[in-house]
Amino acid sequence: MAVTNSGVQNIFKIPELKKRILFSLAFLAIYRVGVHIPTPGVDGDALATFFAQYQDTLFGIFNMFSGGALERLSVFALGIMPYISASIILQLLTVVFPHLERLSKEGDQGRKKITQYTRYGTIVLSIIQGFGISVGLENMSAPGGLAIVFHPGWSFRIMTVITLTAGTAFIMWLGEQISERGIGNGISLIIFAGIVARMPQAMGNTFQMLSTGEMGIFACVILIILMVGVIGFINFMEQGQRRIPVQYAKRVVGRKMYGGQSTHLPLKLNTSGVIPPIFASSLIMFPATLASFFKDITVMQYISSALRPGTIIYELMFVGFIFFFCYFYTAIVFNPADVADNMKKYGGYIPGIRPGKRTADYIDKVLTRITLGGAAYISLVCVLPSILMTKLHVPFYFGGTSLLIVVGVAMDTVGQVESHLITRNYEGFLNTGKIKR
Predict the structure, then answer these.
(1) Number of structural domains, the chain?
(2) pTM, two decimal places
């Protein structure tokens, strides 16, 4: 999947595509500037010292998705996580409430209404999380007893809630503008930018370990080869799909005949995306996060040490939760019965399978099997960081959720650029001509 020089040059020959790319880069730059604007009333040095000892807890996960904004408690400290959480909650509620299910099937108008509900939910979650962070910071102190908040009280809490909520709302607006007027999915690109922005620091730590002799040249070469191999593996697996053949019967409407063509129903190997590892790591790290605030309780400390990345218990639970959420989330976002009904409505059928319930059962059977492979693939990629950090002493979190997001977003964005080039009769961005979807 190498990039051709002519394909890169063709990007700047299309004014609309060039404008979209520059627009996206400009808005991502605005986001990165906001990450470095601190929230008033917080001692930044004390906060950084505090976060240094909690990287293996939920704070570390949220800090990764916020692009380092949480450890600075910048105006974008909450990141885009409240929006993602609200979106997931709405998807889950769609299964429970018939009104939301009807809206999801009403086309553009229904999706606009659900998007509006998601925005409201984002603001509510931001207010709750902002208040929780403000109260928590007042009760925390950095090593040595140094206070993190200069002047605790309701004035600080209200200011923090307003600041963090406004920051999340602004990020949400940035993401929507990028999706509408830029290139790629805005929300995904914001997360992508936050993760990629931390790579220079990780590379600097690696070179520092090389210079001090903590990491050998041979280990570094193996690491680079392994990184390239894992990225290629993720790229291959994310494009993996099972294509079920579908035949449409001929229909006569008036004097015209429709249908009769053969097509396929693509089922992705990884239908659930990055949701399973996010949920799994959050659930497992929640007890460790609680234990970090109860250092005097022996049982809590035992739980905290047992559920840290790299331990057998953590890895087994992590893999187990990934499998569970892969099946659970796939069942939420993909309904074989609806697919079978739509196929039957338009005269489609799977050769050798009776339309209706038999078709739904067959699709569900195939989806169950390929989800097993998808869950195994995600588990392998997510367990990799622990192996690298314990065996090769890698100084950064390579692999897992962050790498899945980076590769997935990069593939999606390049695919959209490719589509713009192909539709205007230019040579593709890649030497293969297109990206499979």
Answers:
(1) 1
(2) 0.76
